[in-house]
Amino acid sequence: MRVLGIDCGSEFTGYGLVEQNHNNDLCYVACGTIKLSTRQTLPHRLNQVFETLRKVIAEFQPDNVAIEEVFYAVNAKSALKLGQVRGVAMLAASSCGLQVAEYAPLSIKSAVVGYGKAEKSQVQHMVTKLLRLDTAPESPDAADALAIAICHLHTIATLQRQGVAR
Q1: Which of 52, 66, 88, 113 lies at a 20 to 30 A Cα distance from 40?
Q2: pTM higher than 0.70 for the full model?
């Protein structure tokens, strides 16, 4: 199973693809960061996220998409922008016929680091170890996206062991 994890942001949106083979080993496929210019209009940035994610989906053919749930933000304007980016990411996946799973930040960190309040650097370190990478992913956003994909694969494996269909 191949999963595309997406870490949404209004300036940087990370994506990461992880595959779980028949031996249940996690395998790195690809990752990257969509850098959005704050000089561009919001509709232009949203279109950039949409088009880039559709290209990633077309190139790497994931089976599922996983995304981080909205967390509480102090700034309402930032939360609104984040929600719009999340909506566009979900639309990109859905328009390609893919199901989207959502995970709380606490669940993602727990699945990857074993501690729900882990720092970004700890997530980046564990993603590097779990995927047996020579170097850490290019950006914390890409590492977070890989962590989201790993969380989804772990969740699916757990549900399958418990006999729960998903």
Answers
A1: 66
A2: yes
